[in-house]
Specification:
- The chain is an alpha/beta fold.
- Helix content is 46%, strand content 15%.
- It has a seven-stranded mixed sheet with strand order 1-2-3-4-5-7-10, sandwiched between helices.
- The longest helix is centred in the middle third of the chain and has 21 residues.
Length: 267
């Protein structure tokens, strides 16, 4: 396990478990945590041996959101707008990296996931929640806009504009049962079983070809904004032609015919 000051990273073969690790502060998101998350997700782009990431929080809460007393809320003085913008871009940049990294991210949510923590949840590819999970776009409750760190983009695409508007315009909490009902989380799992559930899904993802897994995440990211069915089909056609030329496609076909599990080689 790799221990940093605000996060830990545990490797289990091709799976990495990324844990927000400030339990005494309810995993509040500080500039230091943002810096460490930026470094971690940036590194994933050049680390194909890591194929799936699980994201969770240590302690009683997933994340209480931005640490309001931190340097993220810049002191007054000359250059404040510029400093504030830079800090804001550092925070939102983590969301961009989560969506652009080639590895699927499985979010394991328990307790509160507020503000920045909620945005981390939204930026995952798949989400599981404990029964006590409760999430909110807390930004609007501290006097700023409800659309922050990707929430205004991601949430409507996940749950539709009406529910997203309700949550972003009020900062209301969304509890686990409703989150499952509207499709934000795939399932509700006892807190003690969250990691097992996440690993089970990750292991299913490891049964597909590495390049196919990466390109499917990339395609989903792009196709959610495809301007037309024709544009979507064009991209899918090109992706499939690329993957048809890989060794792993040939291996998958051979394994299917021979009724065995495939052994993939392409990274």
């Amino acid at each position: 396990m790799t221990q940093r000051s605000t996060i830990t990273v545990e490797s289990r073969g091709a799976i990495e478990i990324l844990t927000l690790n400030r339990p005494a502060q309810l995993n509040a998101v500080s500039p230091d945590m943002i810096a460490e998350l930026t470094g971690y997700f940036s590194g994933l782009h050049d680390r194909p041996t890591t194929r799936v990431v699980l994201l969770r929080g240590n302690g009683p809460q997933f994340s209480a959101g931005a640490e309001l007393g931190s340097d993220a809320f810049a002191a007054p003085g000359e250059g404040r707008p510029q400093r504030q913008l830079k800090m804001q871009q550092n925070y939102s940049g983590v969301i961009r990296l989560m969506r652009s990294c080639p590895q699927p991210i499985i979010g394991l949510v328990h307790g509160a996931a507020c503000g920045a923590g909620f945005s981390f949840v939204l930026a995952c590819d798949v989400r599981f929640a404990a029964p006590d999970a409760r999430m909110n776009a807390a930004y609007i409750r501290i006097g700023v806009g409800g659309c922050d760190m990707g929430s205004g983009y991601l949430l409507p695409r996940l749950v539709g504009l009406s529910v997203a508007s309700e949550l972003l315009l009020t900062g209301r909490f969304l509890k686990a049962e409703r989150a499952k009902a509207i499709g934000l989380v795939s399932d509700i799992v006892p807190a003690e079983d969250l990691l097992t559930k996440g690993i089970e899904l990750a292991e299913d993802m490891l049964r597909v070809s590495p390049m196919g897994l990466r390109m499917t995440k990339q395609a989903l990211n792009t196709l959610i904004d495809a301007p037309s069915l024709d544009a979507a089909l064009m991209m899918e056609d090109r992706q499939q032609v690329i993957l048809l030329e890989t060794n792993d496609h040939a291996e998958a076909v051979a394994a299917f015919r021979e009724r065995r599990s495939p052994t993939y080689s392409d990274q």
